[in-house]
Predict the structure.
Amino acid sequence: MTRIAIYAGSFDPITRGHEDLMLRSLGFVDRLVVAVTTNLAKQPLFSVDERAALIRAAVGNEARIEVRAFSGLLVDFAREAGATMIIRGLRAVSDFEYEYQMALMNRHLSPSLETIFMVPSLDTTYISSSLVREIARFGGDVSGLVHPAVVEALRGKYPRA
Ligand code: COA
């Protein structure tokens, strides 16, 4: 049986933290579907297509990672993709409450879909997409936090980056 997992998020933009989790998950899944969506609570900087293209650039030619856009419920997308697992990263205790609630709600909606929590590498735990955007917006150096393709894309949005 092919083990397929979904890693969903807004990835606005993808950071080294997301990349770390994606590559780590390939240690126990056969195929990872990175599912790009727009969180209704957030106003994205990059379009879904731009975010998906940046993810592809960042993960290079890793054949086991597929990047797809989706809208609607994650559990429906997971079912359609043939996934049996949802991958989530827990960076700090502060992530836990929200993640726990989401995992239980997704289980309520789709009992056979398991959520797997992963611990990111220590040196990426403080990264978030919104902090990266904010630093870039005010001309700070984000080159240690994101792939060079993302640095370029941020320069396109914020000429001072
Ligand atoms: N490294 C670095 N940053 C990370 C990270 C990691 N390992 N893991 C998460 N983050 C950051 C993200 O960049 C994001 O930063 P931001 O808030 O500054 O943008 C933040 O942590 C939150 O990420 P995440 O929890 O993945 O939220 P999201 O908004 O990107 O995605 C969805 C949330 C899309 C997974 C969720 O809203 C969803 O499933 N939506 C579909 C609709 C649905 O099914 N709803 C019912 C859910 S029960």
